[in-house]
Amino acid sequence: MASPEDVVKNAKISVVDFAAFLDGSNKQAVADNILASFKTTGFVYLLNYGVRPEQVATIFDVSKEFFAQPMDVKSSAPRLASGTHHRGYSPVGHTKNHGPSYVSEVNERFECGREDDKRMPNVWLPDGKMPEFRESCLDFFWACNEVASNILRALALGLGLREDYFHQYHAAADNQLTLFHYVSAPLEVLEQNDRIGEHSDTTSVTLLFQDDVGGLEFEDPAAPGSFLPAPPISGALIVNIGDFMMRWSNDTIRSTVHRVRPPPGCQTQDGKVPSRYSIPFFCNANFDTVVDCIPGTWDAEHPKKYEPITAGKYILDQIAETYDGES
Ligand SMILES: O=C(O)CCC(=O)C(=O)O
Ligand SMILES: [Fe+2]
Questions:
Q1: pTM for the complete prediction?
Q2: ipTM value
């Protein structure tokens, strides 16, 4: 794993210690640093973001155990055929890369949300299979929801707004937790089929937990079309802004294109790139609340570029395209 110092030297993403925001000792300075990183790269690394390392380790263990189940077990919690129903298990090949090559992506995933979401009910394993799985996923979902709320408070302060400005727009927790398993595969296969293709997220903010394998890359804001690594840093969470927040901020903060490739110089095992596990948490504004450009992001000289919209309409229109709709 890279050290924070290496990342600061080699990449453009800031590494920010969130402790002084959470304990209230230096909120504004932390908020300003986070906002500055979102404006330049769309990403930030956060240290001391408020989740115990053991809780993160536990969900990675649970994820590994889930993906190690036989296919008939995993498939007994299938993602539904609708392209917009992002719940349950999707095997390798069920998503397409929307980048230049439009090939299948070499990952399997499990997606879930809050348990009382009537529009998109969760899809769990049948009773008796990994009995702790549901509770572990939901515990981690709510831990992530808390982290995201704190980041949105920092973002509001950075933007010169009331700290709870974003709260009312995210109170529904219309969020999604995804467990990803990028399967081990020969390098040639991964050179022709992305682990995850170039995309930007549709969210307000995304939290990304990754193991120590690496391979996440983001588009260099200074050189569109070329990518820089966002390597794992021990104990740090990666946070990135999504398209909805970029639009909401009248394009004053960036949603940056990113992808997952085999990590540069990775050691193959038996000619194969090692598998990788990651856990993104997609934090969305309430699907039913109309939002208009954030105060302070527009004025007579920088008029609003966008009409008011709900996150539900915006996001569902976009994610329907990501799945092939046949499975
Ligand atoms: O697995 C990763 O590192 C990135 C995942 C990602 O970008 C996504 O699911 O939107
Ligand atoms: Fe993403």
A1: 0.93
A2: 0.99
